[in-house]
Amino acid sequence: MVNFWSATVYDANTASGLDNGQPFPSLNMMDKPAKNPDESIDIYFVPKAPAGKEKNWLATVEGKGYFVIFRLYSPKKEFFDKTWKPDDIKKMN
Predict the structure, then answer these.
(1) Rounded distance, CA 87 to CA 26, Å?
(2) Which residues, listed in sequence order, are joined to residue 72 by a DSSP beta bridge?
(3) In 12-86, which ranges are E strands?
(4) Does residue 26 surpass a pLDDT of 90?
(5) DSSP 8-55
(6) How far is CA 46 from the centre of its chain?
(7) What pLDDT, on the 0 to 100 scale, is given for residue 1?
């Protein structure tokens, strides 16, 4: 659907990259996150990586607000004609 994508976590107060203890507050396709059987990718935005999901995890900071920007580079026709879109971020227990 795209040539390249990235997801970045930003600090809600400063709008700079969230100081989350990871080298970069972002995940992209070059990081090779694990894919689901249908080729979709789940990304986890939580303070501690869920067991076995470390490759698909972006750390947040407990008690600190954040927002995510999802960038699509060279999106293809499916994005523009809306036959594909990234899913909404969902809160999970």
Answers:
(1) 18
(2) 5
(3) 26-28, 44-46, 57-59, 66-75
(4) yes
(5) EEEETTT-SBP--SSSSSEEEGGG-PPPPTTS----EEESSPPTT-GG
(6) 11
(7) 62
CA–CA distances in Å: residue 38 to residues 7, 12, 25, 35, 41:
20, 33, 26, 8, 9
Beta strands 44-46; 57-59: pairing state: parallel
Q: Which residue would you say has higher pLDDT here, 64 or 91?
A: 64
Alpha carbon 93 to its chain centroid, in Å, reads 18
- Tens of pLDDT, residue by residue over 47-84, are 999 999 999 999 999 999 999 999 999 888 988 999 98
CA distance 42 to 51: 14
Mean pLDDT of 24-40: 94
Architecture of the structural domain at 2-80: Sandwich (2.60)
